[in-house]
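ugh ok fine here u go
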Amino acid sequence: MFDDTRRENFANGTDYDPQKRPRFSEIATFMRAPLASSLDDVDIGMIGVPFDGGTSFKPGARLGPRGVRQQSCLMRTKNHTTGIAPFELCRVKDLGDVFIEQMYSLEAAHRYIEQFYHEIVKRNIMPLTVGGDHSITYPIFKAIAKDGPIGMVHIDAHTDTMDSLYGSKFFHGAPFRRAVEDGLLDPKRTIQIGIRGSEHSGTANYSLECGMRVIFIDEFDDLGVSGVLKEIRRVVGDGKTYISFDVDGLDPAFAPGTGTPEAGGISMREALRLIKGLRGLNLVGGDVVEVAPDLDPTGFTALNAATLMFEMLCVLAESRVNYPQTD
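structure:
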């Protein structure tokens, strides 16, 4: 049992470091980071958005944050390739999940998400998010891009720039069209990588016509990771940039647990090299979305998502140091 002093320290986080405890113990948090009791003293907040009301095919991404938290206990604290130790560079905490009271209303759910992230931005916290379906990125943008449009590195099988489907303009196939229309996303500083498969007729046209750089999977193969990284730097430049990774951008061999898998995607090795290659960019946040753990009994999809998340955390932490944000 705790004595009074230790109980008080445990409650305020000063005597609580789950990374020093066995991986199979304690409450599951992202990468065994401390679970925040407030928004004070946080540089990077890892956040779950358990919402899949915007899916168009198989649901299940609402369980993504829980599945990724479970698998992320295997993440280390230092990147073996880059040497980045994100927990030493920044105060990193798990901020829990966004509470969405009106789960059955897509637009109302987006308002709850937006309100949560407005508070995060107001506290000068850089968000790293696990979804949830890809529709959640739009309300996140409404908070983090309130002062002007941002650029984006988007890895996905789909462009997610459709107009509407089944009567909704806010489903997971449309977030980036809405973001451009609202002046939140600069299409000329946006690059979409790995696009392929059963794109709806004309879907990619909007991306191309508004000025996004779209790298279809065949061109990805021709350019290779190094060539794609050169294009990323050319497109996004030095401005504020967000990373959005839909796990269906991976080949289904690496991510079968997702609602709209597409054959012929990129490998985990290529994905990890892509994220590592974003070092030096002016990054303002990132997300990993569309993880549906119950569609993959092996747990590999959630493990790969956790690994992508760790790589993002590394480059975000370094960017936070190099490009400090002001209140």
